[in-house]
Amino acid sequence: MSRSSLPPVAALLDRGKTMAEKHESKLIINKKEYEWPQRVITGTEIKVLANSPADWVVNEIVPGPGGDPEISNDQKVDLDQQSEPKGIKRFTTRKATTSPGAA
């Protein structure tokens, strides 16, 4: 899959402007701050904002011990600063890893 299979950022932002509930949310992807016109964002939308390839993986950075959960393409994340973990939500995008011997 390539970047060209993802919708352009402008199309996603325009779609957000037509939603009944308008909500300006901040999020950080790969250490860069973005604004999003909705309270909820999907894994695919995070990749588009970050200009990451479609086959990359999104992880939400959460404080404390344990791993940072992977966000699937269709998974929705609540960007409200009062939802857990509290504060501006942080994400990373990365190339998917493969196991040795995997097809």
Count of helical regions: 2
Query: Whole-number radius of gyration?
Result: 14 Å
Q: Give the beta-strand count.
A: 7
Based on CA inertia axes, which overall geometry fits?
Answer: globular
Structural class: alpha+beta
**Architecture per CATH nomenclature, i.e. the level-2 architecture:** Roll
At the first level of CATH, the class is Alpha Beta
Helix content, binned percent: 10-25%
- Order of adjacent strands in the largest pleated sheet: 2-1-7-4-5
- Main sheet characteristics: 5 strands, mixed
Low-confidence parts: none
CATH topology: Ubiquitin-like (UB roll)
Mean pLDDT: 84
Strand content: 25-35%
Q: Could you give the distance between the termini?
A: 17 Å
Instruction: Give, in order, the helices and strands.
Output: HEEEHEEEE
Number of domains: 1
Write the SSE topology.
Blueprint lengths: L8 H9 L7 E5 L2 E5 L3 E3 H8 L6 E5 L8 E2 L4 E3 L10 E6 L9
Keywords:
103 residues, alpha+beta, Ubiquitin-like (UB roll), 5-stranded mixed sheet, two-stranded antiparallel sheet, 2 helices, 7 strands, 17% helix, globular, Multi-ubiquitin_dom, Multi-ubiquitin domain-containing protein
Describe the structure.
The protein is an alpha+beta fold. The protein has a single domain (3-94), classed as Ubiquitin-like (UB roll). The protein is 17% helix and 28% strand. The protein contains two helices and seven strands. It has helices at 9-17, 43-50, and strands at 25-29, 32-36, 40-42, 57-61, 70-71, 76-78, 89-94. The strands form two sheets. A five-stranded mixed β-sheet has the order 2-1-7-4-5, with helices on one face. The model has no long low-confidence stretch (mean pLDDT 84).
